[in-house]
Design goal:
about 0% helix, 7-stranded mixed beta sheet, globular, 9 strands, mainly beta, about 35% strand
Length: about 110
């Protein structure tokens, strides 16, 4: 005999978001991850590797890339990433957990770095 009780799901907007993977983010979530979570394919398109962890608050160190999940996709702000960080095209195939970046900013201005 099961002593289980039916449960309901807590609405997402009432829950505090904690550390998790980029791929688990839902619209409204934002946080910080490492700059090398950005991958660039052979044609120069930017992607996020969804397997990287994202922190809800900036804690210093290498987690300097701001990631936001919106209803339209993922937005990154590379303005807080050290200027020495450069991304190169990767010949690896795009994997299932790669997410297209829909917008990229340097601080608040559209960015081409």
């Amino acid at each position: 005999m099961c002593n289980c009780y039916p449960t309901v799901s807590m609405p997402r907007e009432l829950m505090e978001w904690k550390t998790g993977k980029i791929i688990d983010m839902v619209p409204g979530d934002h946080g910080y991850t490492v700059p090398w979570a950005i991958k660039v394919d052979e044609s120069g398109c930017a992607w996020l590797d969804g397997s990287y962890m994202v922190e809800p608050e900036y804690k210093g160190g290498t987690t300097s890339l701001i990631v936001k999940c919106t209803k339209d996709g993922f937005v990154v702000d590379v303005g807080s990433v050290p200027l020495t960080q450069k991304w190169s095209r990767d010949l690896c195939s795009i994997m299932a957990n790669f997410i297209p970046i829909t917008e990229m900013y340097c601080d608040r201005d559209p960015c081409i770095r």
